[in-house]
Each structure stands twice: as C-alpha cells, then as structure tokens.
Amino acid sequence: MKLNNDLAKALNDQVNAELAAAHNYLAMAAYFDSADLPGFATWFRAQSQEETQHAMKFYDFISKRDADVTLAAIAQPTQTFDSPTQAIEAALNMEQAVSAQIHALFGMASDHKDYAAQSLLNWFLDEQVEEEDSFRNLLIQTRAAQNDPWNLQVLDKELAARPTDPTPV
Ligand SMILES: [Fe+2]
Ligand SMILES: [Fe+2]
Questions:
Q1: Are 143 and 136 a contacting pair, CB within 8 Å?
Q2: Which ligand number lies closest to the CA of residue 96?
Q3: Distance between CA 153 and CA 157 in Å, rounded?
Q4: Separation between Cα atoms, residue 152 and residue 148, nearest integer Å
Q5: Hey, what domains does the chain have and what are their CATH numbers?
Q6: What distance in angstroms lies between residue 141's CA and the mean position of ligand 2's atoms?
Q7: pLDDT tens per residue, the chain (169 residues)?
Q8: What is the spatial distance between Cα 106 and Cα 134, in angstroms, rounded to a whole number?
Q9: How far is CA 163 from the centre of its chain?
Q10: Cα distance between residue 69 and residue 59, in whole Å
Q11: Cα(78)–Cα(25) distance, rounded to whole angstroms?
Q12: Distance from the CA of 111 to the center of ligand 1, in angstroms?
C-alpha cells in the first residue's frame, strides 16, 4: 500500500525529531561529564543511543513502504544548564513534546486508515509512556539528592549501571 504523501512527510519529520532528541541527550551527557557526574553522563549517552534507534525505526518503516527518507538540519542543542535538575526538567519537557508528536502522527495514520503505520505508532505510544515515567522518576531522585553531595554521588553511581553500546575503536 502506497504511503500517503502527507503521512510520509510527517514520518520523515519524526526521523528528524528523534535524531534531534539524540543530539540533545548527547549534549546533556557532555554537560554531566563536565559537571563531574560520569554516571549521569553514561545514562544520557545510553538515552541518546536509544533515540537514534527510534529514528531508525521510522527510517526503516518509510524505506520499506517505498517512500523516500529525507534528512534535515538539526539545531544546535543546549549544553549549559544551571543544575542537574534543570537539565532533567528540559529532558522531561522534550519527552512530553515528543509524546504530543506521536499522538498527532497516530491521528494522521488513523485518518488515512493506514493500519501498518498505526501498528508502528502503537509501539511508540507505549514507549512514550515509559520515557515520561523514567524521566519523571529521574527528576524526583535528582531533586532529592541535589543538595547533598554524598547522595548525589550515590545516585551517580547507580545511574552508571545503565548499559551503553560499546565505544567504537
Ligand atoms: Fe524517541
Ligand atoms: Fe525519548
């Protein structure tokens, strides 16, 4: 079934939105590295890698539906924050915006009766529930720890356990 042109364009926009999220999370990883919080940096690096995988899910879907993948420029990410809490608030806001984008895409796929696109987007609807929940939890933990250097170090050690893809050599 031919992918509707408007839907193809919106899915391409989402490839870019996911890549922009990856770029923003990598910038946050760099912020945490410079703030000497390597565990937070590892957690955000893994998050960045996950967003790249999301972009590729949309990329593959567009390509397999015989439409063109078109990449666009990505804006320079914010890399300076007043505090760890402020960075995580920005991340949560970004996830909430992505959830709204996925909802809009699902509505568009429904309008066009594109059930395969709806199936793809169902996965993303569930994923966004998980994403918002995980950032909300991280925000609660970081707010609780931010005024106590020892607690912040303990949280940083915990966050370091999140697996990342190996660094290429
Ligand atoms: Fe994503
Ligand atoms: Fe996300």
A1: no
A2: 2
A3: 6
A4: 6
A5: 5-159 (1.20.1260.10)
A6: 19
A7: 899 999 999 999 999 999 999 999 999 999 999 999 999 999 999 999 999 999 999 999 999 999 999 999 999 999 999 999 999 999 999 999 999 999 999 999 999 999 999 999 999 999 999 999 999 999 999 999 999 999 999 999 999 998 888 877 7
A8: 22
A9: 16
A10: 6
A11: 9
A12: 23
How far is the centre of ligand 1, averaged over its atoms, from the C-alpha of 19 (Å)?
A: 8
Expressed in angstroms and rounded, the spacing between residue 51 Cα and the centre of ligand 2 is: 6
Residue carrying structure tokens 């300076």: 80
With 0-12 CB in 10 A as exposed, 13-18 as middle and 19+ as buried, what is 46? Answer: middle
What is the amino acid identity at position 41? A
User: Which ligand gives the minimal distance to the CA of 47?
Assistant: 2
Instruction: Output the six-digit token pair for 100.
Output: 């709204």
Report how far ligand 1's centroid is from the alpha carbon of 147 (Å): 30
